[in-house]
Design brief:
six-stranded mixed beta sheet; alpha/beta; 444 residues
């Protein structure tokens, strides 16, 4: 009797240590070390039971779970996690009681809760329903992935353009993409089960698109699934979700403490952008390509027509360009194009803007998308230009249509060499062969 009791006690002890399933079962034993590789990175549909060895309901489920695993072998993966031993996995997926069954379908980072019966037939039926749903999603072009469509790594998703502009960051690509890149990064560390993260998702996605466009990719928004990429979360001391950090090249990351709306995020990103970029270059219009690129790539391009170099000299011209540079720095958040041309060099441009060959220096601001422009009516000074551009930014001021309804033809000219102008040299006339007496006779 004692020996039988001893065997039973030993058997119970072994069961407690090794869980409810053995390697010979068709149920895959999942642990903290293999879960990501087996489940999250798999293309298969998974049914995963989270259990505790001491749980009576879990013990009752064992024969049906094994039977369902055998029936689904080669079709759907069936696994089990000893959540008593691997508590981090249970916490990661919000397990609060035992047994808990979760279905890992297209989006492995956001499994659904199994709500069906506990018989092998009910489990198989639910698995097949989930499998049909997965196949329909794939036929429809959805590939799953994280809550954000995979911007890096070539994945696709059905989440719209906004999500595509959120860069999915991982243990593998984080250093290369964020730390070694030249961009400024705002990075969200999230967990798929986190309610606040789900609330932030649409705001983060919308902000990602707007920031990418307004900064021309100089500030980017990324996201790290901290439940999958735990090394990153540990490296940066992530203790709650969502946590947003700001990364600038060569500097320690900073915590973002601002609001969580799209407007808040965009405003902060634009401040980061303006703090970390030089003022835009003031380009001379020497060809059509210069005008086209600057105006078509920007919401607005500011064009000055400066007096001829013979009228101002290099010092006078540089004074005008210095005023423009200060204004370009002041309005650098706008990402406008800034251009200039010498009076008389681009007459078609002057004509299309109503400058008309007089009144230099002159300035116009063009919206190439609408083919509308506005003229500076005040002084060509920091104050005058600031008032002009401020009114445009606020939607005030009169506008007109660009002459011809398109960007004008631009002459290809030599760029200014930075020097004073020189009067053209007159040809010397040799008068040695002219008979002045004959000229006098002709006049008479």
């Amino acid at each position: 009797m004692r020996s039988i009791l001893g065997v039973l006690v030993c058997s119970w002890a072994v069961l407690s240590v090794h869980g409810l399933y053995s390697p010979s079962d068709d149920v895959v034993e999942l642990t903290s070390s293999n879960f990501n590789r087996e489940v999250v990175q798999s293309d298969s549909l998974w049914l995963v039971e989270f259990y505790a060895p001491w749980c009576g309901h879990c013990r009752n489920l064992v024969p049906d779970w094994k039977k369902a695993a055998t029936a689904l072998k080669g079709i759907v993966k069936v696994g089990a996690v000893d959540a008593d031993q691997h508590k981090s996995l249970g916490g990661q997926y919000g397990v609060r009681g035992f047994p808990t069954i979760k279905i890992f379908g297209a989006n492995k980072n956001n499994p659904s809760e199994y709500q069906g019966g506990r018989s092998s037939q009910a489990i198989v039926d639910e698995a097949m329903n989930a499998l049909r749903s997965l196949v329909k999603e794939r036929l429809g072009g959805r590939t799953g992935g994280s809550d954000y469509s995979r911007q890096s790594g070539g994945g696709g998703g059905g989440g719209g353009a906004g999500k595509q502009d959120v860069v999915e960051l991982t243990d593998d690509n984080f250093d290369r993409t964020v730390l070694q890149g030249d961009e400024v990064w705002m990075v969200e560390f999230f967990a798929p089960w986190c309610g606040h993260c789900k609330n932030l998702e649409p705001e983060w996605a919308a902000a990602a698109s707007e920031v990418k466009e307004q900064t021309k990719g100089k500030v980017r928004l990324g996201a790290v699934d901290a439940t999958v990429h735990q090394m990153l979360a540990s490296r940066y001391g992530i203790r709650g979700f969502p946590t947003i950090k700001v990364f600038k090249k060569g500097e320690e990351p900073e915590d973002y403490q601002g609001g969580r709306t799209r407007t808040d995020l965009v405003a902060y990103a634009l401040d980061l952008f303006s703090d970390n970029i030089p003022p835009p270059e003031i380009l001379e219009i020497v060809s059509g390509d210069v005008l086209k690129k600057s105006c078509e790539d920007s919401q607005l391009c500011v064009i000055a027509v400066l007096p001829h170099i013979l009228d101002t000299g290099a010092a006078g011209r540089n004074g005008y360009l210095e005023v423009m540079l200060k204004m370009a720095d002041k309005y650098k958040k706008k990402m406008w194009g800034w251009l200039w041309a010498e009076a008389g060099a681009q007459m078609d441009l002057e004509s299309s803007l109503g400058i008309g060959g007089f009144g230099y220096p002159a300035m116009a601001a063009i919206n190439a998308r609408k083919m509308k422009f506005a003229l500076l009516r005040g002084s060509f000074s920091e104050t005058g230009i600031h008032e002009f551009l401020r009114d445009l930014s606020m939607g005030r001021g009169s506008t007109a249509t660009v002459g011809g309804g398109a960007l004008p033809k631009i002459n290809t000219v030599e760029p200014w060499d930075g020097k004073d102008g020189e009067l053209p040299m007159e040809d010397d006339i040799d008068l040695s062969d002219v008979d002045l007496d004959d000229l006098e006779k002709d006049e008479l």
